[in-house]
Amino acid sequence: MNRICGFLFVTISLVFTSTFAQEFTLYRINDLVGDTIDVTEQKKYYLFPNITNFESAIFYKSDSIFIANINYIKNDTLQTDTLQLTAFNVNRINYCINNADTINVMISRDEAAKVAYDRFWEDLESKQIHKIQQKTAELKSREGRAYGVATGAMFGSAIGGYVGSQLGIDYVGMHDGCFSGPIYKVNYPIFCGINFLTISTGTYIGYKLGEKKDRNYSPAMTDIKEGKEWRIGLGIFSGIIGSTIGAYTFLYSTVTAFGRINDWPSAYVEGGEVISIPALLVGMSITYNITYWGIQLGKYIDHNRAKKK
After folding, report:
1. What's this model's pTM, rounded to 2 decimal places?
2. Which of 97, 98, 212, 286 has a 20 to 30 Å separation from 264 between CA atoms?
3. All structural domains of the chain with their residue ranges
């Protein structure tokens, strides 16, 4: 049982250390227009034709996700719509820019071509983030919920393991045969009931707090090209440190039943395998939290180094 839990602990710890948040930087969509399409270029290349009083379009990229901020005048006020684009959409916009003259001739002579071209832009211009707010939040901002669940599980399992061990592990007596030492027995209903209550409560509270953070999430858009050396390096380093501390916590909590058994080298616990479950959760959660804050520190250093360049 302990070997299986140890294997799961190492596996999940490695997964935690590979998690990095996305960041958006300016994206040069085409050399003819750069990263910003102004009014002159919009008219020249016939881009975003359905945006009334168009002012500019600015593009951002993070991995395979593209975002365009469309600025326009409405009621004498500059307003902005944010579009979420796919690589296919971006390639089509590039095609429209590179072949503007040919496209203008085609749509002026062929009604079917004009209808297809208009439909493309209508579909693209409908991809406003406020219309797909819930979906994009699921795609880009799980960080708050992941951290909340890990932290809630850590506190819930630590409290449940300690209280459950104090109330749900009974001293039976001494064994004087081939095995000499104290004998304890796990009261499954009490131990498991307390742990189920504290772990589920802690996880639920952490999830809800993280969900609130994710709902208020907005992608950081910057024109600074940041490196990832520090966040990766500190992420790996803190992952190693976190795994070490987490593994020690897991082993110590398992063999001592969260401090309930002081004479553990010579003690025997009937049904003691169940103790490893909350101990494993505590160890994994500690690994995640230390790794998470190492990555956050690395991101902060990367950002400040980029600003100084």
Report:
1. 0.54
2. 286
3. 25-132, 141-220+227-308
